[in-house]
Structure of Cytochrome c-type biogenesis protein:
Amino acid sequence: MRRLVLVLCVLAAPALAVQPDEVLDDPALEERARDISAGLRCLVCRNESIDESNAELARDLRLLVRERLVAGDSNEEAVDYIVDRYGEYVLLNPTAEGANLLLWLAGPLMLGAGLVMGGLYLRRRSKEAEPATDRLSADEEARLREILRE
């Protein structure tokens, strides 16, 4: 039973794809590299960070990040270097400026527009008068009574 619990705990742990030969000797640099790679998207796996992905390109990006940190780059400089090479798509959490601002605002703006349009429709609909119903003529009323008696 203990072995089963141990196996389940190991399987439930986050699967990090960083290979032992990638790990830097300096723990502070390695921690910075892990922080950076957790925010970079694997271009092969889409919504996985390069820290979690087993793809070759993710490995290359992890090595590139570590190479930049060893060269003396700050975290921002290393991320900017990767973004310059691969585009802003490589960021798991893109910036909210420039053209991306339109994408960040599009959802809330469309929701607001839909709510306003729905409110206006309901308001206009509630103000409309009930459709006038024509009264039955005397002959029609007599015929209806006759039908109902049968």
